[in-house]
Amino acid sequence: MKTIGVKELAAKQENEQIDLIDVRMPTEFREVHADCARSVPLDSLDPKAVMAARNGSASLPLYVICRSGNRSAQACKKFIDAGFDNVVNVEGGTTAWDSANLPVVRGKKSFPLMQQVQIAAGFLTVLGVVLAYLVHPYFVGLSAFVGCGLMFAGLTGLCPMASMIAKMPWNQCGDGGCGSSCSA
């Protein structure tokens, strides 16, 4: 997989048009993103649709960024698996972009997804224990279910609760704040 550093990409951007997609959640994108990135969340990424929407520039490199480089590497793999090999992972992601004092757009802050998952899992676990004590012992199953879900997430890297919470209205950008900032 091809990679590029943030300073090298910024230098390219000064001399040529680049296509930079950010594969983080819309709320993460809204909080801070590279000035010319556009939001294409990893959980709904369709490589063929992204390439088709490039209006004849599918042969030009597609640069992929996330927070630190992990999700963008997954996205690059999706593109490569779909037959598009001219994709480039941005090393260090938006964190490195911001740390290098490159232009970013800042917006509304929100709770990170994993913090929302921790709050929900903790609440459901405590709720299961309280209901088991006050209502019926079988409610302890709720706590066990949450514990099994956390173990599944830890073992597989997939978290159904995170996927569900990511689709909640407060984690969406209906105000137009998650679209493309500019076309380099």
Report on this model:
This protein is an alpha/beta fold and 184 residues long. The chain has two domains: 2-106, Rhodanese-like domain (Oxidized Rhodanese, domain 1, 3-Layer(aba) Sandwich), CATH 3.40.250; 113-171. Helices cover 47% and strands 13% of the residues. It contains eight helices and seven strands; from the N terminus they run βαβαββαβαβαβααα. α6 packs antiparallel against α7 (140-156) and α6 (113-134) crosses α8. The longest helix is centred in the C-terminal third of the chain and has 22 residues, at 113-134. The protein is elongated and about 65 Å long. The two termini are 23 Å apart. This is Inner membrane protein YgaP. Keywords: Membrane, Transmembrane, Transmembrane helix.
Topology, please?
Elements: E1 2-4, H1 6-15, E2 19-22, H2 26-31, E3 32-34, E4 37-39, H3 47-52, E5 62-65, H4 70-81, E6 87-90, H5 93-99, E7 104-106, H6 113-134, H7 140-156, H8 160-166
Parallel strand pairs: 1-6, 2-4, 2-5, 5-6
Antiparallel strand pairs: 3-7
What's the gist of this structure?
Keywords: Membrane, Transmembrane, Transmembrane helix. By secondary structure, this protein is of the alpha/beta class. The chain has helices at 6-15, 26-31, 47-52, 70-81, 93-99, 113-134, 140-156, 160-166, and strands at 2-4, 19-22, 32-34, 37-39, 62-65, 87-90, 104-106.
